[in-house]
Batch of 4 targets.
Target 1
Amino acid sequence: MSYIGEFIKNNILCIFFVGLGLLAWFVTIGARIESKKSGRYVSGVPGVGGILIIIGFLFSPVKWLALIGLLDFDMWYFFVKVVPDIIRAERDERNYIPPEEFDDGKVIEYSQFNKEFEEIIIEREAPYAHSLHSICRYIIIRKEGKYVLLKNEHNIKVIERIECDTLEECEKHASKKVKWNSK
């Protein structure tokens, strides 16, 4: 068998992953160029090319070539910009305290953040579409002598309002898992 055939036989995983990585890299570069030409966003597969190239060269006997995968700018952008932004947004969401007045009413109680309180399907008009919303926080306000339970997706997007006569009635309409904080 020839030297090239032997190399291919021993490094098939390396060739496969590096080939896929190069393809993903070129697709991402092409998408950027197309986005600039057309003026609209065209998605590539950012960061995937670099990761696949690193994995591929880690299967080869010349492992230091995995450093080539670090040339993928999108991978660095992901770890330096995107991940810290996600962590910061999660922290801000968890530590959120509503203002004294919210949705034209005085805040009485609000719940701690929880991604899994409940999901609500909102039906819309024709063409009869619907959307699924995750309720992550409840806020009870006092407005015009009544209590109003606000079901919020994340911190500020109010999905549903339920008017009640008493505070306890509002609390009954919320999830059983709620931990309330008083204002």
Target 2
Amino acid sequence: MNGKYDTYLLYEYMKKVSFTVRILVKLNESVDSELLNEAAQEAISRYPYFSVKVRVDESGAFALDHNENPIPVLPEENRRLMLGSEKTGGHLFAITYRDNCVWFNFSHSPCGGYGGLFWVKTTLYQYLTKKYGTITAPADLKRVGTPVSEKETELPDASKLPDDEPIKRYDGKSSKVGLGRFLKYLFNPFVKDNYYYEIIIPKDKFMEYAKSIDGSPNTIFAAFLFKMIARYYPAKPNDILSGRVADDYRNDIGAAESYRDFTRLIHIMYTRQMENDPIEKLNRMARGAVIFQMQPELSCERYKQIEEIHKGIDAQPDLKSKKKFATQHSLFRSDVRDVFNVSYVGQTDWGGMEDYINEVYSITDGDYMLEVNALKDNFCLCFQLINKDHKPVELFCRILEEEGLPYTVSEMKTRYLPDIELPN
């Protein structure tokens, strides 16, 4: 297991964009905190690669050591939790709870949503079986006491991946729309919080709609968000109102079962001239962009690019230099700039646990950011904004109505994404 790979995103840490994740699971009964704590301690024993603390080694690099402290299970406090701190026992993973809600908080550096769900599902399974007895386990559940396989910690060798050119490259351009809004948030020291709405769409109705226009959740939601953006911002000549869709490319690089984060962002370029096009046409455009950019050759290219950046970080003589290099070569900063984002993790197998789960939301960084989770009956959308302007979500819901899709939407909520305390 190469734990060093799990540290690289920590060099890019910023207080406003801390690269952390919360997965919120709403259960159908109030949480038993004692049982949850017991379950959490049992579950984390199955994930030695998540039970870690950060130190700075003799070369000035971040390193991960095994953390023997209990995984923190704390009441939710309506404020940002500090991962890596004394309060969390130095852990980069922590659980909070209130009423029927459980938040799984973690750093994005070791993993993204795919790997984080390993831990979430094992913890919930331990908890729910303690509370209710025998439950049908998900087919992919990683049970407490089972060994960690090599495939689970797979880290491909970039030098052994092919160098083939893709059939065609997708041409796109960065958008400046909404950039001032984001920079104002990023550099204003008095702005700390960001916000989200929970939107539920019945799955059967959505899939009927998707089938009628030959679409998928990612491409349909991208079309919806483009429509929303076009209506929100006054028209300017030659506007580019582009978006991005998260794509998991682990299969292309031979890491199909790895917990690590292998995600790239697929760019979809829309223009102002398309704002009156029907969703069906906008969906086809998105599907075409996705097909071009999901070529395995581009996956290998992306992974090699990331590995070269990691080598550059390693070559720096001290922590300060490593942070500077990581910032200057950050793909987060240098990728094509888009206005909106869609991330759909796909259908998650919860097994019999789903009988006890009402809703699931992924909460992340981002503005005009749509995180989508699917349960057997509903799509759970986390619609994320960096300010308290209600108009974007109102426009988005109006588009759902125009397309004949039923929905419910919550009041505005604060994200309270965790922060990270890192050693100097």
Target 3
Amino acid sequence: MRVSSILKRIKSVLCPETWCCAVRFNASEDACILNDRNTPFTVLPDSYRYWSADPFLILRNGKYYLFFEMFDRMKRKGLLGCREISESGCSKMKVIYECDCHLSFPFIYEKDGIYYIIPESNKSGELFRLKCTEFPYKWEKEAVIAKQRLVDTVVFCHDETCYYISEEVDDRNVFDRLDLFYDNSGTFTACSSNPVKRDADTARGAGKVFEYDGSYVRPSQNCGASYGACLNFNKIKSISKNGYEESLVLSVSPQDIPFDKADDFIGIHTYNQLGRVETVDLKIPGRFNFLNIFGVFYRLLKRFL
């Protein structure tokens, strides 16, 4: 192995790129990133042990809650976390669910008064669902939806059909496809046209589908230039059990929107909005943290015990 490759590997372990989340409270529910790229987002603080990414929003009893990947530098894996947010600040991050594998992208939704999360859990080889037993901090594994490796799954119900917009992956980690599944009387069924899209620049999901100007918009991330290079907003032109079609409306990089904190953000790959609140995540260049060293020894110890 070349010296340059060894040094690059050491740097990636000791000073890895990290993420943080940011939020924006708008004056009205009509404002969003598609029509306002001037109002600044507030960057939320990470902790020394954890950094955050993949933020999703819930409004309950007049309070906003942020659910996100909570990456543990010591254990070197993602957990699921939550914190309350408001215009005056935010609470501390708190772990709400952990399992043996890495977890991220906590797609959260409510049905019949109960909250559920479908996390990204592809390393476990299955797509599963969590059920909230005490909001917002207690969750339990409730069901396995599919025995497949899928990332960043988004549920979108349209014309009385529940769709799962996702992406099948393998160990190559090439994020260049979009796959569509649907609920067929309780059975997780693949669209006959999968993959419904092939494009590393616009395929991989980046948040919930939302409505804007009379159309449905699907956020996606650019994984072609680099992982999380920018956000895309795609207008859904058609969706059915037989296929899917969309068109790109807008791409946004961290340099296209302002933040209250000056930093050299080098990526952005999740967007969600609810009411008058929006949230994104931001990639931060690699910086040293002592816990990164601890994490290496922790993983080695687990491997040999």
Target 4
Amino acid sequence: MPTNEKELNAALFDQLTLVERIERQVQKGDLETVKEEIEILKKEINRKLYQQPPLKSE
């Protein structure tokens, strides 16, 4: 969880970017590309979630 406003804003901008990437493909009507984009995004998110060493040590 973000610990300050800067981290929260960065997380929100990342999420907004992801939504915009998907929207572009939806507007093109290319649902197969949308599915591929979603799979790529899920992999990117998982890499961030499980990166070693972690961003913040507990």
